Amino acid sequence: MSATRTMSLNAFLMATGHHVAAWRDPASRADGGLDFEHYRQLARTAQRGCLDAIFLSDTLAMLPGNLGAVSRMARTEHFEPLTLLGALAAVTERIGLVATVTTSYNDPAAVARSFASLERLSGARSGWNLVTSSNAQEAPNFGRAQHFDHAARYQRAQAFLAEVRKYWQREGVAPVQVLAGASPAGCAFAAAHAEVVFTAQPDLVAAQAFYRDLKARASAAGRDPAQVKVMPGVLPIVAATHDEAWAKYEALQARVLPEVGLSLLGDIAGGTDLSTADLDGPLPALPSTESGVSRRELLINVARAEGLSIRQLYLRMATARGHWVVIGEPGEVADQLEHWFRSEAADGFNVMPATLPGGLDDFVDTVVPLLQARGLFRQRYQGTTLREHLGLSAPPSHPYPQEAGRHG
Predict the structure, then answer these.
(1) Region (Disordered): which ranges (predicted)?
(2) N or C: which end of the chain has fewer CB within 10 A?
(3) How crowded is residue 251: how many other Cβ atoms within 10 Å of its Cβ?
């Protein structure tokens, strides 16, 4: 491993925070999803910490679940990501700006133009997280009786990406390409096309296996594996002492409403209704789904490996939806991130604050300085573009070959 290898850090912003009960924490902004000043402050905090980018996710439908549960999540009302990032481009100077846009229910020309505009507005700080829509409830919003099946979504994504890339090449822009699929089709697509890969890995062994596999796939596709940055999600809960950090975590867990936990679990399970299941019994057999395949498999694997009841499982998912959770004082958190990084489980991390703004403040003010002192993270920006922050070269001058996206 190169002695100069340093990690990438991204701030994944979700309105009030990633913990499903974050909006009930007295220090969180329960109305943050529709407050531009809230996001402006978060973006400035991330930039103060010299983070590579901020990232906004999106879905083109209401979250799955009954209205009673969805109305108690504080995640249903938020700005459209590209619009918000355009506004944030005007009040930041260095931080990268990454948004999710689906290929399943959009037009390639519109997406290409939107990101080209953001790239120019921001001074080449934009990135596109390409998804194929895990939320099946998007289908009726676009006149379809049912969602595209999994294979069809990736076939559509391949053609969609090729069109977008041709437009960008004509216009001379190069937003960073982000992908997040972890199914076999998703991994093949990422190995051929991604420059950054967001992934959910709950433990070190799984993360190392995913890292090795994706880098090998990229090499087999004729790409430089160093130009594919693997960034697992991590939810850090940080406090001055180990005990205080765990007290923070336990306070959040105590605020999880059962109907919200069940709704979240059903969503991750692919839209399965678990409302009549025994909360203290095991997870029942789940039907197949055309929604998020990889996250559903992660859920099943965790439940089986640890023998968790439905109640225990939804409390586990309420924290970070299957992503890695690290709890402790700043040194403990920095130690864990360093261990994963040096163990080649990650090139960096998609940091998911449990609460906002406090969770991001804690990470930037107490963990980032430790990583900087250890030579693991930059102390100041060396460039002005997102590509420079990530250490990425310019993309190829030709459109991505069709062969690279086939999944057999």
Answers:
(1) 389-408
(2) C
(3) 13
CATH of residue 344: 3.20.20.30
Residue 130, domain member (yes or no) = yes
Is 231 within 8 Å of 346 (Cβ atoms)? yes
- Structural domain for 363, as ranges: 8-239+322-400
Nearest Cα to Cα of residue 99 among 45, 49, 59: 59
Question: φ and ψ at 106, to 5 degrees?
Answer: -140, 170
In terms of pLDDT, which residue wins out, 309 or 375?
Answer: 375
| Exposed e or buried b per residue across 74-101, where buried means at least 16 C-beta atoms within 10 angstroms of its C-beta | bbeebbebbebbbebbeebebbbbbbbb
- Residue 258 sits in the same domain as residue 109: no
Strand partners, 130: 101, 179
Q: And the tokens for 216?
A: 């090998």
Main-chain phi, psi angles of 221, to 5 degrees: -85, 5
